[in-house]
Amino acid sequence: MIKYRLGIAGVGFLALAFIVGASLISPDKAAKEDLDLSEDLRVSKVLTILGDTGKDNLPDTREFGVSANRGETLIKEGFSTRPGGGKTKIQSKHFVCTSCHNLEKEDPDLTKSDPEARLKYTAENGLPFLQGTTLYGVVNRETFYNDDYYLKYGELVDAARNDIRGAIQLCAVECAQGRKLHDWELESILAYLWTIDLKLSDLDFSAEELDAIYLAIDSEDKQDEAIDLIKSKYLLGSPAHFGSAAESKGLVPNLIGHPENGKMVYENSCLHCHQDRRFSYLQLDDEKLTFKHLSKKAEGYGPHSIFQVSRYGVYSRSGRRSYMPQYPLEKMSDQQLADLKAYIDMRAE
Ligand code: HEC
Ligand code: HEC
Predict the structure, then answer these.
(1) pLDDT tens digits for range 181-207
(2) Is 242 exposed, middle or buried (0-12, 13-18, 19+ CB in 10 A)?
(3) CA 286, CA 288: separation in Å to the nearest integer?
């Protein structure tokens, strides 16, 4: 992390940051001479200062009852207190948002969507490894349900691709298989998501690059360049390409599976939902019989093949609306499937 000693330009910069970011940065820090800018400054604020016209994705707090706290409980528990008193109806019978999304940073390098680096990073940080992209920094992204999600949701994606509100509603109904959110709930979720936006310290800047950004603040002709520089440090949309079970099945025998990575996939991903039937009626556990079953079914085309479920997910059965989301290639590589297979086969012995 870069400790940045503030020069004169830096102080001016901070003053400006306070005007724009008023409630977001605590004012007494302004007095400190030696500030760890990387800790506090929001990427969105720096961009605004540089003249980037952001999207209209700030929460509308005029809506009655909007609060980041309520948004947080909705995301983590599926319901919250109602502004008028009492509790809301549960948003989904099947899932909460955190069934499929982390709320923390999950990639060591935000310029890449690399599942192998992510598996390691999430394991080190005690986080699950999931099909949905982390909601940390989602307010900084510009497009949603990218690439092949159009294949899955078709025209439903139109309202979501460029609009975070549309993305949240689509996910509430289609991913979580639940009810639509009320306006105040949606705005509360957005308010919470703005508490987990990207900070400058999440991005990898050299001291020279930081200098260039500071200089750009009072020199208009450098601002576009500085904006581009900042935006080159994280993905503006989370890429998603769907694989095929047959292709993965064909590739995996040519790869060397590493059971220790497979164990992480199994425990941090599969068990996140299947242990104790947390989000699925199907129980997966640490028993030899379970591994024998998964090992035997892997090569087939049935719904218990790890290749089928990971590449296509599982559609809801009649009478239930629960389903398992697929893993795009960016969320589970073929190498990771080889690792998972190696672990399952080892445990089945
Ligand atoms: C069953 C799994 C599941 C649940 C539950 C779920 N999501 Fe998602 N969500 C996904 C998947 C898969 C995507 C596809 C895009 C991605 O995240 O990579 C997605 C996408 C999103 C996106 C767009 C992210 C992007 O960068 O494209 C947002 C915002 C979002 N979800 C919010 C929510 C919220 C809020 C909830 C709870 C109300 C929720 N999701 C519940 C699986 C889920
Ligand atoms: C986000 C939660 C989630 C994750 C992660 C997840 N699953 Fe699932 N899985 C489900 C749900 C939900 C179902 C649908 C069945 C149901 O309605 O309970 C399902 C279905 C399945 C089924 C088929 C059940 C049937 O009878 O049709 C298998 C097998 C399975 N999962 C294995 C896995 C494996 C292996 C992994 C890890 C690579 C995994 N799951 C990861 C939620 C999840």
Answers:
(1) 999 999 999 999 999 999 999 999 999
(2) middle
(3) 7
Q: How many CA atoms lie within 13 A of 172 on its CB side?
A: 22
Termini Cα distance of the chain? 46
Distance from C-alpha of 308 to C-alpha of 312, rounded to nearest angstrom: 6
Q: What are 88-133's pLDDT values in tens digits?
A: 999 999 999 999 999 999 999 999 999 999 999 999 999 999 999 9
Q: Is 97 in the pocket of ligand 1 (CB under 6 A)?
A: yes
Distance CA 184, CA 82 (A): 10
Residue 189 near residue 168, CB atoms below 8 Å: yes
Q: 91 CB under 6 A from ligand 1?
A: yes
Amino acid, res. 193: L
206, 183 Cβ separation under 8 angstroms: no
Higher pLDDT, 317 or 126: 126
Q: Is the dihedral of CA 146, 147, 150, 152 positive or negative?
A: negative
Q: How confident is the model at residue 11 (pLDDT cuts 50, 70, 90)?
A: very low
User: Under 8 Å CB-to-CB from 223, ≥6 apart: which residues?
Assistant: 50, 51, 216, 217
Label residues 122-149 b or e (16+ Cβ within 10 Å = b): bbeeebbbbbbbbbbbbbbbebbbbbeb
Closest by alpha carbon to 271, among 251, 240, 294? 294
Q: How far apart are alpha carbons 47 and 54 in whole angstroms?
A: 8
Confidence band for 36, pLDDT divided at 50, 70 and 90:
very low
AA letter at 265:
V
Q: How far is the CA of 82 from the centre of ligand 1 (A)?
A: 23
**Alpha carbon 108 to chain centroid distance?**
13
- Of all protein residues, the one whose alpha carbon is nearest to atom 41 of ligand 1 is 97
Residue of 110, 138, 171 with the most ligand 1 atoms within 8 Å of its CB, for mutation: 171
CA gap 267, 130 in Å, rounded: 11
Closest ligand by atom to 148 CA:
1
